[in-house]
Amino acid sequence: MEIRFIIVIGLMLLISPIHAQRLLGGETAIQLSGAIPTNSTDAISENFSFQLGVITNTKKGNYWKFESAYQRKTFDYKNQKLPYEFYNGNIGYFLQTFSNYQKNFLVYTGISGIAGYEVFNNDTSLLQDGATLNNRSGFVYGGKATLSIETYLSNRWVLFAFSEVNYIPKSELAQWQSQFGIGTRIFIN
To answer: Domain of life of the organism in this record (predicted)?
Structure first.
């Protein structure tokens, strides 16, 4: 019973109706998000992406994002599924394109540089039926454009939905890759 009471009080303090100043320059947040690639045809359990990032607000309500990500897709080949994995990091700048007066609903557009390593079929080129996979694993780089819709649930907790388009010119999979997802951000100072 006491534990429930402590949890309820903690949630009330976290989601307080107090409207302090938001989007102050120098604020830092930790962000966790998940996404689904838009060209996926299989189950979400086989096609997903996770991102972990650090956000730093600038003086005008914009922010810098430093993020690492893991993406997994599967592709059907005869009666088997071929995995594709993309490990990457990106650094980007996001501009506030819309916000309401209380700064609890915001729209951001951002552009990022992206670099990472893509792996096809667990780095195995020979398939079970004897065919050879021509796609090679390797380092890739490119850019990313993002549209993010964000809402403050409290002064330190943000919930957001986003859509991203990656341009990776040296990718063995596709130069243009897109995904959409949701995430949360918690300010730590």
So the answer is: Bacteria
What structural domains does the chain harbor? 26-187 (2.40.160.20)
Average pLDDT of 98-112? 91
C-alpha gyration radius of the chain: 20
Token pair recorded at residue 161: 């939905």
pLDDT, mean of residues 113-142: 84
Query: Which pTM does this prediction carry?
Result: 0.81
Compute φ and ψ for 76, nearest 5 degrees.
Answer: -75, 135
Q: Could you give the CA distance from residue 93 to residue 113 in angstroms, rounded to a whole number?
A: 9
pLDDT at 17 over 70: no
Whole-number Cα distances in Å, 105 to 1, 100, 132, 153, 159: 36, 6, 50, 10, 10
Other CB atoms within a 10 A radius of the CB of residue 95 amount to 14
- Residue 99 CB contacts under 8 Å (≥ 6 apart), including other chains: 61, 105, 106, 107
